[in-house]
Specification:
Blueprint lengths: L1 H7 L13 H6 L9 H12 L3 H23 L11 E5 L5 H9 L6 E5 L4 H4 L6 H20 L4 H5 L1 H23 L8 E4 L4 H8 L5 E4 L15 E4 L2 H8 L6 E4 L12 E5 L13 H13 L3 E5 L8 H5 L4 E2 L6 H8 L3 E4 L4 H7 L3 E4 L6 H5 L4 H4 L1 E2 L4 H8 L5 H9 L4
Parallel strand pairs: 1-2, 1-3, 3-4, 4-5, 5-6, 7-8, 7-10, 8-9, 10-11, 11-12
Helix pairs in contact: 3-9, 4-7, 4-9, 7-9, 9-10
């Protein structure tokens, strides 16, 4: 059912579901969507309004306030956009710094970097009219209300409260991005590269910008509403095959693997992730504690590599004795330096990278977890799961089997 919805969803409102868990919650988890504090407030107010026109005015009002705030955050234009430049759009992802450096040196053509979460990076090159932004909020809200009210997909019509909530939460950002890209429609851009399939990418394509490309940075979910990029580069063939179903006109490419690690020390590299409104590492604390205690018993050195977007003191609070890698090295550089036998995480891209680099990937997620069911890459098949794989990990640590043989067995079903 999810595949059918993603294939048949009209272009006019695909952006609404970008960066949300709504489709996952409806078609995979089959539950009421989980919103953050602001989302719950918006949803509650929308549900209390008795008439459609009142809901429309409310959403237009909050989106107009939000887009005004975004315009203020953007600040004033400081320089002209270089003619014929390349644009790289990130959002603060873990491997983003390395991806930007590689992209910047790919060509002699000038490249600039934008950040979806830092609106000053957008305002640096363009001044947007606040009146035009307000006008676009009104016009787009009106069009989307009509489109959603008559959606062919019954589940979306039945969940109108959730879809309108997503519309209200994301409308201002989409309008800001789209107006920014519309101001460049007549510019001679060499290309635009995104590492996220979020609203900024949808807005870029919807504004008519050409040569828009995608480079995967992390594990992708089945419920992602992928923008219709002209070119998309994926980390694995299985992810490329999945999204090729929804990008029939796109040029699909699979990223080549890194050189395999041939030497392995008794090291467990723990690559951390960050908490969200729908995921908390605290839920898996017993399994994390158990694998740490096991590793210490087996004489493994444990090294923690924090995620750049990680907040709070998860490791300092629960595992103050563990060594934290404070180097600026990217994942591949850390692996080359410490030569780990295991890379442990929840559902990080590092699990895929570890497999490609001939290191054993281990996930501490519980089998059947809804997040694993939504991920295209099969974590349960292509990674060891703790504590189910404890015996395999023990004989591997004791040298009774080789890292290469375990990696090969995990890679057998990987496409």
């Amino acid at each position: 059912m999810l595949e059918k919805v993603l294939k048949e969803m009209p272009d006019s409102y695909r952006w609404i579901f970008a960066g949300t868990d709504l489709l996952k919650d409806i078609y995979l988890a089959e539950r009421t969507p989980i919103f953050g504090p602001r989302g719950r407030l918006v949803r509650r107010i929308v549900s209390c309004l008795p008439f459609h026109w009142l809901r429309f005015l409310f959403i237009v009002s909050i989106a107009s306030i939000d887009v005004t705030c975004l315009r203020i955050k953007a600040g004033r234009q400081k320089e002209e956009l270089p003619r014929g430049c390349r644009i790289f759009v990130g959002f603060g992802a873990g491997p983003e710094k390395g991806m930007w450096k590689a992209y910047e040196t790919e060509s002699e053509t000038v490249a600039i970097r934008l950040d979806e979460t830092e609106f000053s990076s957008w305002g640096k090159y363009k001044n947007l009219s606040i009146v035009k932004l307000w006008s676009s909020v009104w016009a787009l809200a009106s069009a989307e209300f009509r489109a959603l009210s008559s959606a062919n997909e019954k589940a979306l019509r039945d969940r109108w409260l959730d879809t309108f909530t997503c519309l209200g939460l994301g409308l201002s950002r989409y309008v800001f991005y789209r107006e920014w890209w519309l101001s460049l429609r007549d510019s001679e851009l060499s290309e635009v590269v995104f590492i996220s399939a979020d609203k900024a990418a949808h807005a870029c394509i919807d504004a008519g910008i050409r040569r828009v490309k995608y480079r995967q940075h992390g594990l992708l979910r089945k419920s992602i509403v992928m923008p219709k990029f002209e070119h998309a580069r994926f980390l694995t063939a299985i992810e490329a095959a999945w999204f090729a179903n929804f990008l029939p006109r796109s040029q699909i490419e699979v990223l080549e693997g890194q050189t395999g690690q041939m030497h392995h020390d008794k090291v467990m590299l723990f690559t951390s992730v960050f908490d969200t409104d729908t995921f908390s590492r605290e839920c898996d604390l017993p399994r994390v504690r158990a694998i740490v205690e096991w590793a210490q018993t087996m004489g493994l050195r444990i090294l923690v590599r924090k995620h750049p977007r990680e907040e709070g003191g998860f490791w300092e609070t629960h595992f103050p004795q563990l060594e934290v890698d404070a180097s600026p090295d990217n994942f591949e550089q850390v692996v080359r330096r410490v030569c780990p036998m295991f890379v442990v995480s929840w559902f990080s891209t590092c699990l895929v990278d570890a497999l490609k680099m001939n290191v054993v990937p281990v996930s501490v997620m519980s089998p059947g977890h809804e997040l694993l069911q939504d991920i295209v890459f099969n974590v349960e098949t292509n990674c060891l799961l703790w504590p189910k794989a404890r015996e395999v990990m023990e004989i591997l640590t004791e040298g009774r089997v080789s890292v290469e043989s375990v990696v090969l067995s995990l890679s057998a079903d990987r496409q």
